[in-house]
Specification:
255 residues, alpha/beta, Rossmann fold, two-stranded antiparallel sheet, 9 strands, 37% helix, 16% strand, binds nicotinamide-adenine-dinucleotide
């Protein structure tokens, strides 16, 4: 699907990977609306305040996009939060409230947005030689394929999102809607800016090549490649320089 003239929604689009994807889609001629709990719209895009973990907030924001633009062709399902904590220690059970919050944002939030936007996409006029009606890109993670010590909640959400990429593609293929995922490794965004440099160095040690943090613009390039390539469907592209994270680092929850 050529993004030019299309309408794109990017959740978590006011920072980091989502912001880069929004800017890239704007540059390619799409009308872009970010749904974010805070922050300013990327240049050339507009933004609506939305908490993806709140179904009413998602429904209202998607309805507002429809009122303003009449349709949604592209969804970058990207809003997410981090979270680290073991399931249990000698001191006591793990923090299940924190676990639930990560699931609510990273998994149930992504499902809520896919449900509202996917439904709207079914009504789109077929576009291009393949008659596409929409493209959904889920931001997964290398944790989708193996979470490190202490990353239970995040891994539960991101591995489920990777698995759902196949199922949602199957649910929506009847309508000419594709669903893909991108699984970034360590990317230099505000989400990870608090991490000590020694920790980042330890993480990047396990990349093959190049041994550096990914740039948000590289994520955006992959998103646009997916949008433009009709044969890409129902799978997750790793964007991690071949990283296979170790079970733990000296900084992870168990020390
Ligand atoms: N940075 C990395 O190394 C990395 C690696 C793999 C996957 N990811 C994933 O990429 C996505 C983007 O992360 P990022 O690194 O750009 O982080 P970021 O913190 O820079 O951006 C996340 C954005 O999501 C928004 N957001 C958070 N909770 C929200 C909610 N409930 N409703 C609406 N918006 C909400 C934030 O306001 C922010 O604008 C996340 O899903 C994250 O899990 C990041």
């Amino acid at each position: 699907m050529d993004p030019a003239g299309k309408v794109a929604v990017v959740t978590g689009g006011n920072s980091g990977l989502g912001e880069a994807a929004a800017l890239r889609l704007v540059a390619s001629g799409a009308s872009v609306v970010t749904l974010d709990r805070d922050g300013a719209a990327p240049a050339g895009a507009s933004t609506l305040v939305c908490d993806v973990s709140d179904e009413a907030s998602v429904a209202a924001a998607v309805a507002e996009v429809m009122a303003r633009h009449g349709r949604i062709d592209i969804l970058v399902n990207n809003a997410g939060i981090g979270g680290i904590g073991p399931i249990a220690t000698a001191e006591g059970p793990g923090d299940l409230a924190a676990f639930r919050r990560v699931i609510e944002v990273n998994l149930l939030g992504a499902a809520a947005v896919a449900a509202e936007v996917g439904h709207r996409m079914t009504a789109n006029a077929p576009s291009g030689p393949d008659g596409e009606r929409g493209v959904i890109v889920n931001t997964c993670s290398i944790a989708s394929f193996g979470g490190q010590e202490g990353m239970g909640a995040y891994t539960a959400a991101k591995s489920a999102l990777a698995a759902l990429t196949l199922v949602w593609a199957r649910d929506l293929s009847h309508y000419g809607i594709r669903v893909m995922g991108v699984a970034p490794g360590f990317m230099g965004t505000p989400m990870v800016a608090f991490l000590p440099p020694e920790f980042v160095a330890e993480l990047l040690k396990d990349a093959e090549f190049p041994k550096r943090a990914g740039r948000a613009e590289e994520f955006a390039e992959v998103v646009e490649f997916i949008v433009r390539t009709p044969l890409l469907n129902a799978d997750v592209i790793r964007l991690d320089a071949g990283t296979r994270p170790p079970a733990r680092t000296q900084w992870s929850a168990g020390g």
